[in-house]
Specification:
The chain has twelve helices and no strands. The protein is mainly α. It folds into two domains: 64 residues; 224 residues, Orthogonal Bundle (MetI-like fold). The two termini are 49 Å apart.
């Protein structure tokens, strides 16, 4: 027993040393990743600060025309005034609501149409050329027609935002549905499943990454469509402010409105990430449940 104890002690010590060495390597890797992340963040802030500084210096020294290009200090003063009187918030909130509404309808209607095309091969063969043609239409030229047909109201602006992304969404989702593994579908059919089971257990969970990627693109496209609609037939929103500022040559206000549009896009993209995470969790639960059912049947 004593011999076994003495023999086991060096083995245990070597195991502890190996675990310690592995943990040190892991810590070194985590430290390197943290340094890399901090370096990227610092460089991003540095590039932005350098650009703003160069812009301000160029305006003050007369290298560029301050009336045409404005300057960061003047833009900040104008922005502070718009925040103080509260005018910027009404326009930003209107654009955000219209963008979110158009994005919601694009996702819901796009998924529904893609599922219909996947369920009916004849319908997909009939409609696919028309979808390609509609997707290639210049959406900025379509916005005035929408204003004439539907009137100058908020619903028309939401439709204008939808028109930019809906047809591409349908085509991309349908393409993703068709690229799902045929072996998994055959397995469901072999186990007595129907086309509905294939859709809910295989096709939709398998295309979650593609769906989230499409959503990330669509939120920006919807914002572009909403701003285009506000250019033409709105009395509130960032697009209306941009058109008004360009007509009266308020370039500082123009810069603020464009920066606000970028901020709205970032907010909407963060909301899209949250929604995408929820979809991923739901699809993961559905996929694990279907796999357990298949294993139980086998």
């Amino acid at each position: 027993m004593l011999w076994k104890k003495t023999c086991s002690e060096p083995a245990a010590a070597s195991g502890h040393r190996q675990a310690a060495s592995i943990s040190r390597h892991q810590q070194a890797y985590l430290d390197s990743r943290m340094r890399h992340r901090r370096f990227v963040q610092v460089m991003r802030v540095f590039l932005l600060a350098a650009f703003l500084m160069l812009w301000e210096i160029s305006t003050r020294r007369g290298w560029i025309d301050g009336f045409i290009f404005s300057s960061p200090s003047r833009i900040w003063k104008t922005f502070a005034g718009m925040v103080e009187d509260g005018s910027i918030f009404a326009h930003v909130s209107a654009t955000i609501l219209e963008t979110i509404a158009s994005f919601f309808f694009v996702v819901v209607l796009g998924l529904f149409a893609a599922v219909l095309l996947w369920c009916s091969d004849k319908l997909s063969e009939i409609l696919e050329p028309y979808l390609v043609v509609l997707n290639s239409l210049p959406k900025s030229a379509l916005a005035p027609l929408l204003i004439v047909w539907l009137g100058a109201n908020r619903g028309t602006i939401i439709v204008a935002g939808m028109s930019v992304a809906i047809f591409g969404t349908i085509l991309n989702l349908y393409t993703g549905f068709r690229e799902v593994s045929q072996d998994k579908m055959k397995l469901i059919y072999t186990l007595g499943g129907t086309r509905f089971h294939v859709l809910t257990k295989v096709v939709l969970p398998s295309t979650v990454p593609a769906t989230i990627s499409i959503m990330k693109v669509n939120i920006g496209l919807c914002l572009v469509g909403v701003v285009i609609g506000e250019f033409i037939g709105a009395r509130c929103g960032l697009g209306y402010l941009i058109i008004y500022g360009s007509q009266v040559l308020q370039w500082r206000g123009e810069m603020i409105k464009r920066i606000s549009s970028i901020s709205v896009g970032k907010l909407d993209r963060g909301w899209t990430k949250i929604w995408g995470s929820l979809i991923s969790v739901m699809a993961g639960c559905e996929k694990s449940l279907s796999e357990s059912v298949i294993k139980g049947i086998i």
